[in-house]
Amino acid sequence: MFDYHATQKTLQIGSVRIGGAPGRVPTVLIPSIFYTKDRLVKNADVGEINQSATEKHLAMLADLTERTGLGTMLDVVATTTKAMEKYLEFLVERTDFPLLIDGSDSLEVNTAGIRYANDGGFLDRVVINSLTPDTNDSLFRIVRETGLSNAILLAFNSASMSSSTKRVEIAETLIQKAKSAGVTNILIDTGVMDLATLGIACKTQHMLKDKFGYPVGNGAHNAISTWKGLVPKFGREAKKPAMVGSSLMPVALGADFVLIGPLKNAALVYPSVAMIDVALSGMLIEERIRPEKPHPRYLVN
Q1: Model confidence at 95, in pLDDT bands (50, 70, 90)?
Q2: Which of 131, 138, 190, 243 is surrounded by the fewest CB atoms within 10 Å?
Q3: Where do the domains of the chain lie?
Q4: Contact call for residues 127 and 117 (beta carbons, < 8 A)
């Protein structure tokens, strides 16, 4: 079912392993923190947060990670350079998770995050999210100058909205640019905007694993946040199962990571994805292959 032509790459980013044949390495889940309207944030301009509430959320996430065996990274969202630096300062001292620098497409905010991590000596723990077809060449230069080795490549633009082939072409171009900038740990986000593009994204992730072998995934939760008819037609009670289902689809189809949206959703998503990981590992039994520990197979049954 998951026979690929390319050798599947398993990467080590901080404390997290990611990539490889489905069922062998635990799926990596990436919740977002400090996003727009996140209740943990008191002042988004200066990066002021509710520290005690944030620590409770981080403890919950660490507990879910340990109990399921899944990998965890954090998508750190900021809209100003000051906020990005404050968020990273807080998180790097209180968690061991790899941290995604998500400056909302701002060159200044992303640059500030990378430089802060470099100056603070934890550059190996951060991942730029993301390098896109529209990324300013200045950011690629910052990546090279600092020696940042971890990046998510967003293989998506308006021209590839309904084409998996075009997304693969975009990925190929971005892979070459990222390599030229010194990136060695490449993750590829196949791009989700709505329900229809979730299907295209999952098709693309299979094509990319087959051609290049890099870890792939997407922000499947975007399909739910843009589903205008969900609550009016089916009620608010339909929103949570739809959100969980959106994250399960790419995993069942071979994704190595999923950006699951707000951190508050983690308690719902982690057990469900762990269930899928156990099922995928079962597909390898006939080949006498067992996943290495820790893995959901040994923890959630």
Answers
A1: very high
A2: 138
A3: 14-287
A4: no
pLDDT for 149 equals 98
Cβ–Cβ under 8 Å, residues 9 and 19? yes
pTM of the predicted protein model: 0.97
Burial 161-195 (b: 16+ CB within 10 A, else e): eeebebbbebbeebbebbeebebebbbbbbbbbeb
**pLDDT tens column, 5-40:** 999 999 999 999 999 999 999 999 999 999 999 999
Both tokens of residue 253?
């189809």
- Interior CA angle at 81 toward 79 and 85, to 5°? 110
Reported as a single tens digit per residue, the pLDDT across 206-242 is 999 999 999 999 999 999 999 999 999 999 999 999 9
Please report the pLDDT score of residue 2 as a whole number.
Answer: 87
Task: Return d(Cα 295, Cα 277) in angstroms, integer.
Answer: 8
Domain range 14-287, CATH architecture: Alpha-Beta Barrel (3.20)
Maximum CA pair distance of the chain?
55
> Residues 6 or more apart from 78 whose CB is under 8 A from it?
34, 44, 47, 84, 87, 102, 103, 104, 109, 113
Amino acid at position 238, single letter: A
Among the listed residues 58, 136, 139, 69, the one whose alpha carbon sits nearest the alpha carbon of residue 91: 58
CA 52 to chain CA mean position, Å: 25
Distance CA 15, CA 7 (A): 23
| Block residue for tokens 């403890």 | 59
CA distances (Å), 180 to each of 101, 148, 187, 213, 232, in order? Answer: 20, 12, 15, 18, 48
